[in-house]
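This part of the workshop introduces the protein records we will be handling. As an example, a complete record with its sequence and its structure tokens follows.
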Amino acid sequence: MVRSVIGGVALCASLLASVPGLALADPVGGAPVCRASDGYAADFGGRRTFRWKPRGLAAAKADRDSPALAPAYKALIARADQALAGPVYSVVDKSRVPPSGDKHDYISMGPYWWPDPARPNGEPYVRRDGEVNPERDTNAFDASRMERMSAAVEALSLAYYFTDDPRYATKAAALLRVWFLDPATRMNPSMTYAQGVPGRTPGRAEGVLDTYRLLRVVESIGVLAPSKVLTAADQKGLERWFADYVQWMRTAPTALEERAAKNNHGIWYDAQLATFALFARQPDLAKAVIAVAGPGRIDPQIQPDGKLPEELARTKALHYSYFALEPLVGLAELGPCVGVDLWRYKGPKGQGIRVAFDYLSPFVGDEAAFPYKDLKPQEATREALPLYDAAAWAYGDAGFAAKADQIAKTEPAAISRLTAPAYRK
């Protein structure tokens, strides 16, 4: 489940370095600069991104037809063209009515819950960790709909950036208005009924995780800025939606329960809250979240040897190790926006993001040697490509770059190769 915002958008640093005139750069020093809630706008033609780096995108745009990037670029345009011809998405389109009676409320089902064969109606559902119930992806729920919307917005915004074709921007704006702004179709900014379980509960704390899909939407909105397809009122409306959602995350009982989670869920809560707060122009809140991520998340969740014990207990231990590392990488990438360096954070026993990469990287291409259970270990490694890209850049580490290269050979058309933090000198 490692996804695109690190992700969906990272070009392997070593691949970029192999293109003439490209080189790795220190993530702390030099321009461009992420300036709190203004992001990179001042150095990126008004594009208010926070994790998509101006020089990385510019380098990829200049070299999109190179052998290293052409497959990913072709895949991006194909996805964007599909989105261009496709529908818009709204939470009111689902067939099931939420417990509130308001179809504007998002609903989803916990992914690993299945009908109990011992009961006539299957309820209450029972848990089968790591096995996704396809019922979750039916039209009764909103998770797949949110995924399709956010993936389409991302593809369209990037296609607009790479081609300067306004059609892509116009369609992305339409998708954003329908999902977030139009009174008849907008989603209410809460996740009260997310990841419910039939026969058990209408919603769970774990459901807050569902909105990780919106992380890439934040970056996409920034990329669209030069097109002017979003009016000033649209922009304010989007920022207000995320501000309202931040408020829900900080006050709702299920959200507060998610914040207290000791596994990847708690880290994802922080990564979402910090990102959405920056977008909603609440930089002090974002900084407060990121500043305590070291002692609050890294120290208790990463051991000195780099293992993440809460994730190793799962049936997909390799996947969840990366899935817990992803939001930490996200927080580290946001750190420069608020003056916090999580990349180089070290806990009292040596805990840190880097040691987690050091522990996991030997299993790239040698997943059978991973000493814990995983139902689909090769899939977990493929999904980790953007993480190694980010680590290669952050640490200037040729070993991590080589691991990213190795993964990329199995994913030559990954759209995640199109936006890396490496850039031209």
